[in-house]
Amino acid sequence: MKRDAAGLATLLATTGVLHFVAPKPFDGIVPRGLPGSPRTWTYLSGVAELAVAAAVAHPRTRRAGGLAAAALFVAVFPANVKMAVDWRHAPPARRAIAWGRLPLQAPLIAWALRVAR
């Protein structure tokens, strides 16, 4: 597996597993406008990340997996915005983490698209 693809698959798989092992932080950033319980969305996004990780890891599905990863990174952006807004009065370190996640989405999307090529 190419190094870019291996790294992306590892990132996605790790984050996907975390959605099940420690779901509470993910529940807290689910946008309020989504129907149903935040835990359901946490688990669904965890499943999506694990599925995309598997697709990126396999050479025959890597292109589709890379495109799906890019779409996933776009889809979770509203949760990152919610986190930044919710943490606007948090201690400086937490605020930096929350706001730092926003511009980080662009290189993640670029990475996924590079893997798709």
Automatic annotation (TrEMBL):
<protein>
    <recommendedName>
        <fullName>DoxX family protein</fullName>
    </recommendedName>
</protein>
